[in-house]
């Protein structure tokens, strides 16, 4: 069975939360009040993001230029290269916005399949949030469980926060930062705490050095070819 990495973006591939960064830079300060309602559970993620995006006022070219100033995790390109060399699948699944992800990856010459929310330009600097079809009982804008592969691939989640909790309980193994690492510890989910993709790359190298027999978080990597 092929190894399939599901990668969070905000706080993981990009150390900065890009949505908060763009809202802080270009939105009416009332976005913070909406955020507070979401944090306390008064509104769900889709309602929160829709209301916050309504408060944005920025032209597309200015938005994209600002995103290009943000760095990715410095070890991420090397991780992508090595994972691909070993035959693993890579997929970004984010509860942020695809435009942000695409702009930042393109600036680094990286192309990966991505599933996330969408930011629709309306003209005159205004925007609207759009979402994939909702999944039952999922509180995220983009349901990570619905986007992850099933059955024929072993799923390793790399993430950092609340939007990753549900998939962490279903993945075969988790490489976890921040709140996700604490969630995995409390719920006894098989995981390794990481600080970034340098740790994820070390883990990949150490556990897949002999691809047909090496264990990856207790999983046999029988079909990962160096």
Could you explain how this protein is built, in words?
With 226 residues, the chain is of the alpha/beta class. Helix content is 37%, strand content 21%. The chain contains 10 helices and 9 strands. The strands form 2 sheets. Strands 4-3-2-1-5-6-7 form a 7-stranded mixed beta sheet, with helices on both faces. The longest helix has 11 residues, at 197-207. The chain is globular and about 50 Å long. 37% of the residues are buried. Residues 209-226 have low confidence and may be disordered.
Gist?
With 226 residues, the chain is of the alpha/beta class. Helices cover 37% and strands 21% of the residues. It is built from 10 helices and 9 strands.
